[in-house]
Design brief:
The protein has helices at about 1-10, 40-50, 65-75, 80-85, 100-110, 110-115, 120-125, 130, 135-150, 150-160, 170, and strands at about 55-60, 85-90, 180. The chain has about 180 residues and is mainly α. It folds into two domains: about 1-100 and about 165-183, Rossmann fold, CATH 3.40.50.1820; about 100-160, no CATH class. A three-stranded parallel sheet has the order 1-2-3.
């Protein structure tokens, strides 16, 4: 997302980004809140938006970031953050039917998968479906590096977090303009 952020900044836009719980420079937290859940990720996002966003801010979310953005926009909580939003951009995300099977959650948390991710060619092959078969090698390599750098327990928790999530009814109340990109 650095390339996208750079283009937006060069076009005169203000960009605020952060690392979700357990990703990049963020730890999983020790605030007594439940672990990695869609509700917790939305609450974290609400704190970022409340602290940094100006009225009319466009909130962009990809994959699990999209889950958090959808939950934030559709909820009845986090009002100060919701009131700052002027629109949504949602990329490769969903509002329901993301019930990752136990086998995939276990795989994401396994030492074998982690070792495989550390092997560039094998890791890129294993993750091919997450970015599309036609994605170029540099993009697939960046994706592999991100997955490999994430703690296995965090990967598993993120894949588990959307089980049972169904935001469709709540999204009916959302009046923000939105762009949805998938492919």
């Amino acid at each position: 997302w650095g390339v996208v952020a750079d283009r937006l900044i060069r076009s005169g836009h203000r960009v605020v980004s952060y690392d979700q719980r357990g990703h990049g420079a963020s730890d999983t937290g020790d605030d007594g809140a439940p672990g990695i859940t869609v509700d917790r990720l939305a609450a974290d996002l609400a704190q970022v938006v409340t602290a940094t966003a100006t009225p009319g801010a466009i909130l962009a979310g990809h994959s699990g970031g999209g889950f958090a953005a959808l939950r934030l926009a559709s909820g009845t909580d986090h009002t100060p953050a919701r009131q700052r939003l002027g629109g949504l951009v949602l990329l490769a995300t969903a509002a329901h039917d993301q019930d990752t099977p136990d086998s995939e959650v276990r795989m994401m948390g396994s030492a074998h998968f982690t070792r495989a991710l550390r092997r560039p060619r094998l890791g890129r092959t294993l993750l091919r479906q997450t970015v599309g078969a036609d994605a170029d090698t540099p993009l697939r390599e960046t994706n592999r590096q991100l997955f490999a750098a994430t703690d296995p327990a965090v990967r598993a928790a993120c894949f588990r977090s959307s089980r049972g999530m169904d935001l469709r009814a709540a999204l009916e109340r959302v009046t923000l303009p939105a762009r949805v990109l998938a492919g």
